[in-house]
Design a protein that fits this description.
The chain contains 12 helices and no strands. The longest helix is centred in the middle third of the chain and has 32 residues. The protein has 273 residues and is mostly helical. The two termini are 37 Å apart. Keywords: Membrane, Transmembrane, Transmembrane helix.
Length: 273
């Protein structure tokens, strides 16, 4: 019951803090629209690069453009949701350096909710919108013999992928507490991870594929379930049920990230500033 109370309190605090930042950004409507459009345009350049690549080749690692677009759309949408919810976690190091992190610790509100909602930016909706558009086009264009399990697996991938990326954001923030910053290390696994997953696993070495399957299980965001949907073999041998393992993997990642966060908070030592 106590854990549930803390969770509800954290969600309420997150909603209030995020709402404050939303009202602040909406005070200047034109600026908000321009920033959202700019964010959408910048993120769209990633897929433009893929389109340019396919203007010169017929396939990438044996994957067609609609199949790669499916990977791209799943990765971009899942990451976009996590980035919208917890994308401000990378400022934790700066807060520790200037001493403002200590202020969060003395407030009667869960620290994770405060850090996660800090500078909540609706402009990040541009990434989600762009990823969803590409995903929709890919689902219509890809050559798949659709069945009920495959149809249901698509939204499951998006939700589970968002949870996995959120766990990586939280775990990265916990690492920043130990390292007294290291935001770029966190970005290597978050922004770098979503870029990696936008391309088929067949273009990477097996050691890398094993690493993002068994060590940092980003492959369960889209690679593993997507090969089932597309009827393709996975470079690393996995049992058939692994295609449906994204939800439990996401839960495990969130639990481990939560434990890492708690351990990091307990080990934190103030800068004294």
């Amino acid at each position: 019951m106590a854990e549930r109370g803390v969770l509800l309190e954290g969600l309420r605090a997150y909603r209030l803090i995020a709402g404050m930042w939303v009202r602040s950004s909406m005070a200047y409507r034109t600026s908000f629209v321009v920033t959202v459009f700019g964010n959408l345009t910048v993120t769209a350049l990633d897929f433009v690069g893929i389109l340019l690549m396919f203007s010169q080749v017929d396939s990438l690692g044996g994957w067609s453009l609609p199949e790669v677009a499916l990977l791209y759309g799943l990765s971009a949408t899942s990451f976009g949701i996590a980035d919208l919810v917890l994308g401000s976690m990378d400022v934790l190091g700066a807060r520790m350096r200037d001493g403002s992190f200590d202020t969060l610790l003395v407030r009667p509100v869960p620290v994770l909710a405060q850090v996660g909602a800090d500078r909540f930016a609706l402009r990040r909706l541009g990434r989600i919108t762009q990823g969803t558009v590409v995903l929709g086009w890919a689902l219509v264009s890809v050559d798949v013999d659709w069945s009920v399990p495959k149809v249901l697996l698509v939204p499951v991938m998006v939700v589970s992928g968002a949870a996995i990326f959120s766990a990586v954001f939280v775990a990265g923030a916990a690492f920043q507490i130990y390292a007294q910053d290291a935001a770029e290390v966190q970005n290597a696994f978050t922004y770098g991870g979503t870029t990696l997953l936008q391309y088929p696993p067949s273009v990477f070495g097996k050691d890398l594929v094993r690493g993002v399957t068994f060590m940092l299980p980003l492959a369960f965001v889209n690679w593993v379930p997507a090969v089932y949907v597309l009827g393709r073999p996975y470079p690393v041998g996995l049992p058939g049920w692994a295609a449906f393992a994204s939800p439990p993997v996401a839960v495990a990642c969130c639990v481990l990230a939560g434990l890492a966060w708690r351990t990091g908070l307990r080990s934190y030592r103030s800068t004294g500033s």
